[in-house]
Amino acid sequence: MSTSLPLVFDAPKRATPPRHLADLDPTDRKAAIQELGLPAFRADQLARHYFGRLTADVEQMTDLPAAARAQLTTLLPPLVQTVKEQVCDDGQTRKTLWKGHDGTLAEMVLMGYPDRATVCISSQAGCGMACPFCATGQGGLQRNLSTGEIVDQVRQAAKAAQEGALGPDKRLSNIVFMGMGEPLANYKRVVAALRRITEPAPNGFGISPRGITVSTVGLVPAIDKLAQEGLPVTLAISLHTPDDELRDTLVPVNNRWKVGEVLDAGRRYAQTTGRRVSIEYALIRDVNDQPWRADLLGKVLRRHLGTKRVHVNLIPLNPTPGSEWDASPKPVEREFVRRVEAQGVSCTVRDTRGQEIDAACGQLAAANRT
């Protein structure tokens, strides 16, 4: 296996998405409204519709004068337009392929559970981290998503849940930045999106930070920076193997920040925020599923993070078409869990969803890209 895969932190230059209400903080919204010749209080009215009522159609905002509505359309341009939707798991998993203003494709997945509704959203179109077992990584990075594009995925998911897409009485409560892209490589826009998502109406959706997870392959300086933002979201580290030799290949960013450095950053994050760190581990047959790696994983996590502030989330690999990678057999999976837990580290297997609808990140976009 080659370790010369490229890492792309800066997205290619592309046309910037149009300015959207969700791109703006409250002060900038008022300034934008005044630029349109409207009184500043219209900013709160518009934001209450968008964040509070989940409405992006100004024609439905009948408490606004017709003339004002016509002007305000410029702050609610269409950003996330559905190209295809696939549904499975008795309607409880809904994967949406969407395109941006420039035709760029990205994905989100809305999932219903007995006690919650969760949306998995994208932060980039494609990904520059080049992990070879990931469909998104195989496609490379097209561009960063704007704050508005990130936030509008959440609005659309919340609206769908509100309207009964997952059945009655389901309200969006959980958001995971585990779709396409490396969130911390689009740091500024992701943090701005987190603020819109967590702030109460009219400034945001009012979703608790404790219901939000941000996944990263381990961009150490960005992890440390996120810890200081006052946003106690859950940090998920995509580790996938406890040893540097294999991780250099599976997660090429490891050539820059080694396992110990990444886990130490996770420890600092947990100490600062009080939040437990999740360790994501895609279990791949005959690659990273050996018993000795399970033993080592438990020992390494205990050494760097302790046992109270870490949880291992094993992910049965969802193979991509034509890939050499495959999921580990269930007996191997169970033994892996047993060995990690024997080290005193909590370990569970992620619920698998949507294997029949190209649910692995990037599969649907790759299948529809021209």
TrEMBL record:
Broad class of where this protein is predominantly found: cytoplasm
**Which InterPro entries does the record cross-reference, listed alphabetically?**
Aldolase_TIM (IPR013785), Methyltransferase_A (IPR040072), RlmN_N (IPR048641), RNA_MTrfase_RlmN (IPR027492), rRNA_lsu_MTrfase_RlmN/Cfr (IPR004383), rSAM (IPR007197), rSAM_sf (IPR058240)
What this protein catalyses is: adenosine(2503) in 23S rRNA + 2 reduced [2Fe-2S]-[ferredoxin] + 2 S-adenosyl-L-methionine = 2-methyladenosine(2503) in 23S rRNA + 5'-deoxyadenosine + L-methionine + 2 oxidized [2Fe-2S]-[ferredoxin] + S-adenosyl-L-homocysteine; adenosine(37) in tRNA + 2 reduced [2Fe-2S]-[ferredoxin] + 2 S-adenosyl-L-methionine = 2-methyladenosine(37) in tRNA + 5'-deoxyadenosine + L-methionine + 2 oxidized [2Fe-2S]-[ferredoxin] + S-adenosyl-L-homocysteine
Active site annotation, chain numbering: E107 (proton acceptor), C361 (s-methylcysteine intermediate)
The EC number(s) attached to this protein equal 2.1.1.192
GO CC term, one of those recorded:
cytoplasm
Residues recorded as binding S-adenosyl-L-methionine, renumbered to this chain, are G181, E182, S215, S238, L239, H240, N318
Which UniProt keywords are given for this protein, alphabetically ordered?
Answer: 4Fe-4S, Cytoplasm, Disulfide bond, Iron, Iron-sulfur, Metal-binding, Methyltransferase, rRNA processing, S-adenosyl-L-methionine, Transferase, tRNA processing
Q: Where in the cell is it found?
A: Cytoplasm
The kind of enzyme this is, by top-level EC class, is transferase
HAMAP family attached to this UniProt entry: RNA_methyltr_RlmN (MF_01849)
Family membership, please give it.
Belongs to the radical SAM superfamily. RlmN family.
What's the protein name? Probable dual-specificity RNA methyltransferase RlmN
What species is this protein from? Pseudonocardia oroxyli
Q: What is the lineage of its organism?
A: Bacteria, Bacillati, Actinomycetota, Actinomycetes, Pseudonocardiales
